[in-house]
């Protein structure tokens, strides 16, 4: 039988140490952003250009790989059940 965690125990983030850690992290993030904004924003155009191929790879899943045409126009392909544009 699997053991279940004690649900009556307070989470770490609600403890005094957790609240102090979150506040310290927020203050550190503020100063990190404030001090490094000028040269960090210089990388933004490159990050956008890098995002394009990464989104294509991960969002489209490669369109089924190479060879075979990916099932376009075949029964059961990606357009199966959709009416044609000319209505036939």
Which characteristics define this entry?
single chain; 88 residues; mainly alpha; flat
Strand content: under 5%
Q: How is the main sheet built?
A: none
Cα radius of gyration in angstroms:
26 Å
**H-E string:** HH
By DSSP (H or I, 4+ residues per run), the number of helices equals 2
Mean pLDDT: 75
Indicate the percent of residues in helices: 40-55%
Structural class: mainly alpha
Gross morphology: flat
Counted beta strands = 0
Low-confidence spans: none
Distance separating the two termini: 59 Å
Describe the fold and architecture.
The protein is mostly helical and 88 residues long. 48% of the residues lie in helices and 0% in strands. The protein contains two helices and no strands. The protein is flat and about 65 Å long. The relative contact order is 0.04. The model has no long low-confidence stretch (mean pLDDT 75).
Short overview:
By secondary structure, the chain is an all-alpha fold.
Write the layout of secondary structure elements.
Elements: H1 16-40, H2 44-60
